[in-house]
Amino acid sequence: MPRLISISAAAVTVAAGLGVRAFFDGAFADHAGDALYTVLLYWLAVLVRPSARPWAVALVAGGLSWAIEFAQLLSIPAVLRPVLGSTFNPADLLWYAVGALLATGFHSLLPRRDDGRETRL
């Protein structure tokens, strides 16, 4: 996948996250934010490894999200709390998986060449 698409998808994901926080509150905003957090990690992983298969990137993004969530059981430095969070919530693990699945589905819809590799846009 071209890096420009990954960067664009990451920017759209950040905009979506900010939009959700601006226009919604409560459980919907929290769950959407969790899913979008993993979607952002997904596109950043694709940026690092553009040739990776979508399912592999989903495992990396979901696994990293889960690792960060479990790290919240320990003491996270105050400077990192705005990005990594501070309170473990088991329900977040589900929403990270939803985000990874959504990103994988979108990534899988992108055009590929006949040999199975993605096309250059």
Explained architecture:
The model has no long low-confidence stretch (mean pLDDT 90). By secondary structure, this protein is mostly helical. Helices cover 71% and strands 0% of the residues. The longest helix is centred in the first third of the chain and has 23 residues, at 26-48.
- Rg is 15 Å
What's the N-to-C terminus distance?
9 Å
General form? globular
Instruction: Work out the helicity level.
Output: over 70%
Number of helices: 5
Low-confidence stretches: none
Largest sheet entry: none
Transmembrane segments: 32-48, 55-73, 93-110
Organism: Nonomuraea longicatena
Protein name: DUF2809 domain-containing protein
Keywords: Membrane, Transmembrane, Transmembrane helix
SSE blueprint and pairings:
Blueprint: H1 3-23, H2 26-48, H3 54-71, H4 81-84, H5 90-109
Helix pairs in contact: 1-2, 2-3, 2-5, 3-5
Can you describe this structure in just a few lines?
The chain is mostly helical and 121 residues long. The chain has helices spanning 3-23, 26-48, 54-71, 81-84, 90-109. It has one domain.
Keywords:
121 residues; mainly alpha
